[in-house]
Amino acid sequence: MPLVGCPECGRQISDAATSCPHCGYPLKPDPRIVVPAPPAQPTAETLPQISAPEFRPLAMGLSGTTAAFWWGTAALLGLAAIAFFATWGNWQMYRDGEISLFELADMENVANSVFGFSYLLVAVSGILLIIWCSLAYSSAASKGAAHRRWGSGWAVGAWFIPLANFVIPKLVVNEIDRMSNPVADAPPILDRWKHLPRLIWSDLWWIALLTGIGVNVVASVSYASAPTIDDGGIGIAYAFWTVGATLLSAAAALAGVTVLVLGRRLKR
Fold first, then answer.
1. Is 90 exceeded by the pLDDT of residue 236?
2. How many structural domains compose the chain?
3. Burial of residue 126 (number of CB atoms within 10 Å: 0-12, 13-18, 19+)
4. What pLDDT score was predicted for residue 50?
5. Does residue 32 belong to any structural domain of this protein?
6. Are 81 and 242 in contact (CB under 8 A)?
7. List of residues 6+ apart from 74 with CB closer than 8 A
8. Is residue 3 included in any domain, yes or no?
């Protein structure tokens, strides 16, 4: 029987030995010892399947109702603009002695009443818009959009933060706009949405809104600072209220268009 050297002690032992009889060094695996098999490698069949995100569509009824309220607001603000324009004309006629102060005051009361009632409609339309923004953001984000900056909470809370509510709500709408863009393809859209173009109606809506608010502030200051009804500041106030109401009317109409277009994108 051939002999071999033990790797541990160096003595000669049989090559059939399972261990060195001198030092006990194991030479061959003991058949009585069961060595567990290595774990099986995962295959395509055993790997967990990752499904696409479940898209949550936005109810078209909410989008249509919100848009309709904003278009109604636009119509009422348009009437207010016409009333202020008529008041401006009556003020010039009053300065020329063609009508009395009472006639001017009656026209001004009509304009103020229409404008004030339009603000009540703005409040209702605004509540609907806030609800719509929250649900629309959740719907758009459910398409699997990555690297989002805002959220459905911001879609509500941003409107109530002084000064920030002139900027953040539009940024939230911008994300809804881009995430809902059909060019982003099927879910998950990942970060393909981030550099897509925005709706021109959305940008025009916000420009008209901020400009209209600014013009109305100037009109109010001019009216309050005029010493008499004959002062030129009164005429400036009526003219600016006319322009401001027109801009706000356009903003309300564009808000309705924006809501309806984005709602149609998210309805299914």
1. yes
2. 1
3. middle
4. 42
5. no
6. yes
7. 249, 250, 252, 253, 256
8. no
CA-CA distance, 36 to 45, in Å (whole number)? 23
Distance of CA 45 to the CA centre of its chain: 40
pLDDT for residue 13: 72
**pLDDT tier at 5, thresholds 50, 70, 90:** confident
Asked whether residue 41 is domain-assigned, the answer is no
Any domain includes 64: yes
The domain of 162 spans 60-266
Q: Show Cβ contacts of residue 2 under 8 Å, excluding neighbours closer than 6 positions.
A: 14, 15
Q: How many CB atoms lie within 10 A of CB 254?
A: 23
**pLDDT at residue number 70:** 98
Instruction: Give the model confidence (pLDDT) of 32-90 as tens digits.
Output: 555 455 566 655 454 444 445 688 899 999 999 999 999 999 999 999 999 999 999 99
Percent residues over pLDDT 90 in the chain: 69
What amino acid occupies position 251?
A
Structure tokens at 18: 């399972």
